[in-house]
Amino acid sequence: MKKPILTIAVAGTILFSNFSGGFAVEASISSLKDQQNQIEKEKSEVSSTINDADQKINRLNEQQSDVKDQMTRIDMSIGDTHKKISEKTAELEETKAEITRLQEEIKVTKERIEKRNELLKERARNYQETGGMVSYLDVLMGSHNFSDFIDRANAVATIMEADQDILKQHEADKKSLEENQAKLEEELASVQTMLADLEKLNQQLNAQRAEQDQLLATLEQQEEEIHEHKMELQEEAQLLAAQSAAIQKAISLEQKRQEEEAAAAAASAAAAAAAEAAASAANNNSSSGNGGGDSTSQQSTAPVSSGAFTMPANGTFTSGFGGRWGTTHYGIDIANRAAGVPIWAAADGVVIQSYYSSSYGNVVFIAHSVNGQTYTTVSAHMETRFVSSGAVVRKGQQIGIMGNTGDSTGKHLHFELHRGEWNASKSNAINPVGIVPMP
Question: What is the pTM of this model?
């Protein structure tokens, strides 16, 4: 009776083990696949955001092109206005030179008018003293002979004609003086008005150009910011893509590990059943035997801790998880001034990405699967990286050397732990203290 009962018990143990092991495998794989689906969703969202950024950049480029066209038109208008200002300035100088010349003429004309005025006054006094025409009769009657009379008559006629010419020239000079003065004043006022208008237009165009310069600078700044944001998004997209590949690899490793564990459990159960059966047979045959075994140990240069995680580096704990300097510190800092301080993988896993980041410096992202739960660790600011993207690492394996690269103010390890996948908002970040052993 003992053998059938024992056989049934062993069979039941194997069946339960396979059932529970299969259930654990399926549950673990399902969790990993759910996280992979979440990563794919985030990748799609990031890709959509990158497309939006590209559209914004295109719109900004179009706006910049319009602004540059407007600036070209303004520059041409400014150039044309400067040319007109130069022409009007030259015209104004010519007008001023003409005014100077005419002023000299006016001065001469005024002097002639003054002389004529004196001459006419003298004539008027003579008319009053001699009775006007009588004086000319006296001149004629005082002739000595006919020839002298003719000469005196011609002289009187010439003098009378000269007096008429003087009056006519006098009036003409006065009229010319008035006309020239009015013309010069009108031309001068016209040129000065036009020059003032051109100066005003030039100021307006320069103000418009300054506004366009400012607008262009604003658009270029916006484009630069969007380009930087796009680069961050592209880096995030690459990281998400690498995470997806690493998760897929972790799924395969988890499947293989759990299959090996299930096979080992089945083999162990079968061996136990065989041993029990052999022992039962030996008892039935009143025989006895003995057995033995051996044990092996594996040593590592890293101080590997028991449990799922080991500490990532030796040094001084300098900064914790949480609020710091008005922001949130999403990890912990471990500092060590010694040379060549090793950085270790905190657990078995797959390297998501190993690269240089402007913020993290030399950084290694690793995906870990612990009892069906995915974790992501981030080891940043390293001097050197020893592993590549996609590599499978073991707990305690050296992945780099502590450094001061990226956005760092001193030699240290910045270590992050995320329950699930890493994302840009770091919403999955958790405090490593209490989960990962600290130095």
Answer: 0.51
Q: C-alpha dihedral over 211, 217, 223, 225, to 10 degrees?
A: -120
Neighbour-count burial of 353, counting CB atoms closer than 10 A to its CB (0-12 exposed, 13-18 middle, 19+ buried): buried
User: At 369, phi and psi to the nearest 5?
Assistant: -120, 115
Q: At which residue do the structure tokens 């070209």 appear?
A: 72
Picking from 355, 331, 328, 344, the residue whose alpha carbon sits closest to that of residue 239 is 355
**Distance from the first to the final alpha carbon of the chain:** 58
Residue 325 in 3-state DSSP? coil
> Which residues, at least 6 apart from 27, have a Cβ–Cβ distance to it below 8 Å?
372
Alpha helices in 131-145 (DSSP H): 133-141
CB atoms under 10 Å from CB of 371, counted, come to: 9
Token look-up 């162990």 returns 268
Query: Model confidence over 376-421: pLDDT tens digits?
Result: 999 999 999 999 999 999 999 999 999 999 989 899 999 999 998 8
Render pLDDT for 284-314 as a digit per residue (tens, 0 to 9).
654 433 333 333 333 335 678 788 899 999 9
